[in-house]
Amino acid sequence: MTQQRLAVSIAVVVAMAMACGGGRGHTNGGSAGPAPATSATVSGAPAGMHLIADLPGAEWRMPTGDYGGLRYSPLNAITTQNVQNLHVSTTLATGIARGHEGQPLVVDNTMYVVTPFPNNLIAVDLTKTGGAIKWIFEPHPDRRAMGIACCDVVNRGAAYANGKIIYSLLDAHVVAVDAATGKEAWRTRVGDINVGETFTGAPLVVKNKVIVGNSGGELGVRGYVAALDVDSGKELWRAYNTGPDADVKIGASFHPRYAKDQGKDLGVSTWGADQWKIGGATVWGWLTYDPETNLFFYGTGNPGPWNPDMRPGANKWSCAIIARDADSGEARWAFQTSEHDAWDYDEIMENILVDMNWAGQPRKLLIHPGRTGFVYVFDRNTGELLSAEKYEPSTNWASGYDMKTGKANEDPSKRTHYGSVTSDICPSSTGAKDVIPSAFSPRTGLLYIPAHNTCMNYEGVEANYIAGTPYLGADVKMYPGPGGYQGELVAWDVANAKRVWSVKDAVLPIYSGVLVTGGDVVFYGTMEGWFKAVDARTGTELWQFHTASGIIANPITFLGPDGKQYVAVYSGIGGWMGAVAFPNISADDPYAALGVVGAMKDIKKYTAPGDTVYVFGL
Amino acid sequence: MSSGSSRSTRALAIGGGALIVAAAVAGIGLHHRSMAAAGPPVHLEAPRVVETPPPPDPGVLRVCADPNNLPFTNQRGEGFENAIAEIVARDLGRRLEYYWAPQRRGFIRTTLKAGYCDVVLGVPARFEMARPTQPYYRSTYVFVSRRGYGPRLSSLDDPRLKQLRIGVEMTGEDYDNPPAVQALAVRHIVDNVRGYLVYGDYSTPNPPRRVIDAVSSGQVDTAIVWGPLAGYFAKQSPVPLELAPVTPHRDGPALPFEFDIAMGVRRGDDALRDALDRVLARRALEIRQILERFGVPLVSRSEE
Q: Could you give the C-alpha distances from B211 to A34, B166, B194, B195, in angstroms and in order?
């Protein structure tokens, strides 16, 4: 512990020197070198604020930036004072005009871009002018996967480890590519597209393990996380999110905090017979990791595929936050944010890890801005819920949480029932935010949440048909929530559990991730295609640039070979909400794209499909 | 893996971007291929990445259909909807072509609406996503049970349903389920119900048949299954199965068990819709013979 802290402190000095002196910050030049910057404390941060892992410095080596998922970079050459001089440095077309979620990596003066299906990996030499392509790796995943993915054929990015770029393919494989040569190192089939599994999430690499999860909850897929060996791709363990304790890797070390989450084989007993076998609870969001406890954290998706009336019970472990040991996969704790989901509130959202003062005491926090409209704060070692407060004021499915039981105080009139009408449920099924990740600045103590303000009516049933069975589908109509805006960047004071400021977007929800920097600049994009910089302390809009397409990706920052700070983001509309921008989805049909068209009908006025990587510099 | 240059990548983006969009959402499928004769087992092919819908051709009737879904359609043309499509195309004097794609969420959007075909066979007569023709048959959900299992099951209110293991079809969207699922839930019959996804394991032939296999094998005691599927696969069962229409045929105001089935064209394509209506009327007898040959339980319109 002491040694670890010492090492961290030394690295802080290095990091600060790099950031302030504008040096490259990464001197070994080797692609397998240590992560470049570390910081236990951050200059200008509130007392008691500690980081749990290395921060990204000159490079951006993992999807979330650092293990804590902060999406905070200490780089501070771009400031609130000079950001208005930011301009396009390089652009690159990926050639695939589909939804570009995720973010590039920057390792050893090379930028790595994973495209939407067919999941090409493009290596860009940053030392050459104009973003010269070193190589393109084309994995040719099984094209049948395209017809299975529910919500556009997105990919949320790669991770770097041991000289390899590792990422998921839509056809439920994971592939590792030599970062220098672009040659495939290994490829492992983890899931099966024939039963509806696809992979869209970004991997987490911990020591010698690549941890991935599956997508496809609507198709009767059973959710899991699996660990693969970094060097061989061999599967080392798999932990399901439904079913018997043995399958869920619930054993002697599992200590859920609340009675609601305690008991034997809850992954079976909280479902109708055998329903857990097809119960969803997939894992397609972001994973974070605490090196001190060796725990990793993730959220699970909605229960499926039965309608809520048919699956009485809490349906564990859907809509839950789960902590597991990274070596064994054994569960440590779990917490369901909503039991017996009736709204499609997947809780696959990011779990941001930071040590800071909470109610006057130093605590080890997990901060989870939920699809449900609440920001949850936990003690990440114990799973104790410290706070659950609404960040999107229109949220009405629950008034709050009972801090003794950990249960939501639900409004029963907002529960959906098949065949009956439920009106004005907020947030809608897309949540008060979706998988797009927030950022947390240790300097400001603020969480920057890319939020939606949409509500929905759940109305009766309509006849539908798949050759094989006519069925009855609920009419889920989404529409903009109260207040005259659809999107909002919310700055949330974690310590005081309250909104500080917000930047509203009248037209469309915000579906881009957020980046915050040591220069106190927050970067994010809009579905109309604006890439924006705002002041991290005040929300004052400082700069914006209109990109070629809507932004649903996550900005990153890094130091170029010239030692200067750059910011990169993808521009390419798509995803669940943004897919409405595609030419063949009718904006006249309020039920198309799972009901989101009702909230998104104007999108074609503002944007069209795109495929561009933008790099900005001063 | 391959090498590339920024120039070629950009050229692809500009020249092919829109094309890629169209193809990528087309999902699994084959291309515009004329009626295939009986051939080797179905192996699903995938669409090319760059593909656009074909230009309109008045000499061709393009049908979007599932290549692996008997008794409705398959790629070898063995389904009853294949047979009906042939009759319709012949009557219209057009050549029949298929665009194959599995029926998954987004099927109508990514096939018919995206312009890959003119018509989809088998849509509910009050379907909102397409312009339906007049219905060409009406069928019902049925109880499928092993013969001799006991007194015939037909009523949703049969007290035995509380104890029996009941198979149902599932569609794979958590808000949506076939009517049997909801009718049983309302009666608090949950724990003894087993769901079989109509999508099933697509690497096997005709994945929706698994619910019938489950009755044959004794995995469940009975199943509530859409009539055309039940009628066809019950005939192939190694043990005798019996079918009985579900009663009541409408369970409360919102839960029908009988459905009129029509063809669907793109909204606005009234000329084709009208032409199809005329063909369906002219060929009603032949169509009925095909349906009977495939064991489709046909019902006349109930008083509603």
A: 54, 10, 9, 8
Residue B213 maps to a domain: yes
Domain that includes residue B182, residue range: 139-258
Nearest to A582 among B10, B13, B21 (CB): B21
Give the CATH number for residue B235: 3.40.190.10
What is the reported pLDDT for A605? 81
* Total domains present in chain A: 1
Chain A residue with minimum CA distance to B232: A468
Q: Which two tokens stand for residue A275?
A: 């329903």
What tokens appear for B134 in the block? 């007049």
Query: DSSP states of A525-558 as a string?
Result: E-TTSEEEEEETTT--EEEEEE-SS---S--EEE
CA distance B158 to A426: 40
For chain A, give me the number of helices (H) and strands (E)? Answer: 6, 38
Same domain, B132 and B268: yes
Report pLDDT for A15: 40
**B63-90 per-residue burial string, b: 16 or more CB within 10 A, e: under 16:** bbbbbbbbbbbbbbbbbbbbbbbbbbbe
d(CA A262, CA A310) in angstroms, rounded, equals 23
B244 contact A CB<8A: no
Q: What average pLDDT does this structure show over B44-49?
A: 37
Chain A residues 377-416 within an 8 A CB cutoff of chain B: 416
Residues B125 and B154 in one domain: no
Average pLDDT of chain A to the nearest whole number: 88
In this structure, are B222 and B270 located in the same domain? Answer: no
How many inter-chain contacts (A to B, CB under 8 Å) are there? 277
Average pLDDT score over residue span A148-167: 89
Q: How many domains does chain B have?
A: 2
In one-letter notation, the amino acid at residue A275 is: Q
Per-residue pLDDT tens over the stretch A362-387: 999 999 999 999 999 999 999 999 99
C-alpha dist (Å) from residue A302 to A347, A582, B202: 7, 26, 23
CB-based contact B138:B298 (threshold 8 Å): yes
pTM value is 0.87
Half-sphere exposure for A603 (CA within 13 Å, toward CB): 36
Task: Compute the distance between CA of residue A276 and CA of residue A221 in angstroms, rounded to an integer.
Answer: 10
A182 touches chain B (CB under 8 A): yes
pLDDT value of residue A528: 93
By DSSP bridging, strand B119-124 and strand B258-265 are antiparallel
Residues of chain A contacting residue B170, judged by C-beta atoms under 8 Å apart:
220, 278, 305-306
Give the amino acid at B192.
N
Q: What are phi and psi of B8, to 5 degrees?
A: -70, -35
Nearest-CA residue of chain B relative to A131?
B6
pLDDT score recorded for residue B31: 32
**Residue type at B234?**
A
> Which of A99-113, A603-617, B149-163 has the largest mean confidence?
A99-113
A186 touches B at CB < 8 Å:
no
In three-state secondary structure terms, A48 is coil
CB spacing of A135 vs B1 below 8 angstroms: yes
Residue A62 forms contact with B (CB below 8 Å): no
Q: Please give the distance of CA B165 from its chain centroid, rounded to a whole number.
A: 26
- Domain contains A332: no
Q: A329-343, A517-531, B5-19, B284-298: lowest mean pLDDT where?
A: B5-19
Residue pair B278/B133 in contact (Cβ under 8 Å)? The answer is no
Candidates B2, B103, B184; nearest CB to A466: B103
Return the CA Rg of chain A: 22
Which residues from B are below 8 Å from A192, CB to CB?
201
Q: Using a CB–CB cutoff of 8 Å, tell me whether A303 touches chain B.
A: yes
Q: What pLDDT score does A575 carry?
A: 79
**Beta-carbon separation of A307 and B256 below 8 A:** no
